[in-house]
Design goal:
- This protein has 312 residues and is α/β, with parallel strands linked by helices.
- It has a domain of 218 residues: NAD(P)-binding Rossmann-like Domain (Rossmann fold), CATH 3.40.50.
- The chain has twelve helices and 16 strands.
- The strands form five sheets. The chain has a five-stranded parallel sheet, with helices on both faces. Strands 2, 3, 4 and 5 form a four-stranded mixed sheet that branches.
- A hairpin with a 4-residue loop joins strand 4 and strand 5.
């Protein structure tokens, strides 16, 4: 059962799970309509799309999950949350970003307590926004949360799902880096200036980005489901972070056949356009992947060059 299953990560993960023999239930406020958008075929209790993907109802505001979906689930993957970079961070937007995560977690915990279920593990998404700016060494999972908005949001997000452990269910929290995908996300924004021949480097361009290829991220979620020894918190980032400049120029080399020019976007321009969100764009965060690798996970795309080459 997946929350947030219709987003970029959820869609890719659902496809990978089905390819590996899983049935997937995606929670939606309007499951019948969502299923219709994905070739609705119909099935008792659930609404079915193509393959072994089904849709069932939940409503965070009303704190409701279809008990049939919960009773059918062996594992829960919790991805739900309003997009951090989708809109400018107004006071109301910051509240939405936080509560979409904490209230959905609270709903899962409450439902697991209230209904008989066979859930073996919950794998919950978090983010490397937990960490502050670089302080001389790569961040590891035991480092404390930053005191800024994203750091505190991630802390409350993880705290809200922690009661799952009290129910005797294995809990894994994955602090996800910047996800590289050709279906959207960060690369979509990096590609825009390239259409007019400009490779836009943000700020100094030296800030480190801890990224991950979407296929490796989905594989980490599967690894967390299937390996019972995986428990607790892990950074979901590739082994070799890259600077903003390196990411921009690597992308430019792979997807443009014509001349392109490097253009620096000054920090003050980003602050004017993005407001408080610019802090994250300009922040350098070097995050370690050592812990997840110590569980036996091997990255298919450990380097930026391999990841961009695969995607484009």
């Amino acid at each position: 059962m997946i929350t947030g299953g219709t987003g970029m990560i959820g869609t890719a993960l659902s496809e990978m799970l089905v390819e590996n023999g899983y049935n997937v239930i995606i929670l939606s406020r309007n499951p019948q309509e969502t299923a219709k958008e994905h070739d609705y075929a119909g099935k008792p209790a659930f609404f079915r799309s193509s393959g072994n993907i089904y849709y069932s109802r939940w409503d965070i505001d009303r704190q409701y999950i279809d008990p049939a979906a919960l009773s059918a689930a062996d594992y829960i993957i919790h991805l739900a949350g309003a997009g951090v970079a989708d809109k400018r961070w107004s006071k109301d937007r910051k509240k939405e970003i936080l509560e979409s995560r904490t209230k959905s977690s609270e709903l899962l915990v409450k439902s697991l307590r209230a209904h008989i279920n066979k859930v073996r593990a919950v794998v919950s998404s978090s983010a490397i926004g937990w960490y502050g700016p670089d302080n001389g060494k790569p961040f590891v999972e035991t480092d404390p949360p930053a005191s800024d908005f994203l750091g505190q949001t991630c802390m409350l997000w993880e705290q809200s799902i922690m009661p799952v452990e009290e129910l005797g269910i294995r809990l894994v929290r994955l602090r996800t880096g910047i996800v590289l995908s050709d279906e959207g996300g960060a690369l979509k924004e990096f590609r825009k200036p390239l259409r007019v021949g400009a490779a836009a480097v943000l700020g100094s361009g030296d800030q480190v980005i801890s990224w991950i290829h979407i296929e490796d991220l989905c594989r980490i979620f599967m690894h967390a489901i299937e390996d019972k020894s995986v428990i607790g918190v892990y950074n979901a980032v590739a082994p070799h972070p890259a600077s903003n400049r390196e990411l921009t120029m690597t992308l430019a080399r792979h997807i443009t056949n014509s001349m392109h020019y490097m253009v620096k976007v000054p920090a003050f321009v980003l602050k004017t356009v993005l407001g408080e969100m610019s802090v994250e764009v300009l922040k350098s965060a070097t995050v370690s992947s050592s812990k997840i690798e110590s569980t036996g996970f091997n990255f298919r795309f450990p380097s930026l060059e391999k990841a961009i080459d695969n995607l484009y």
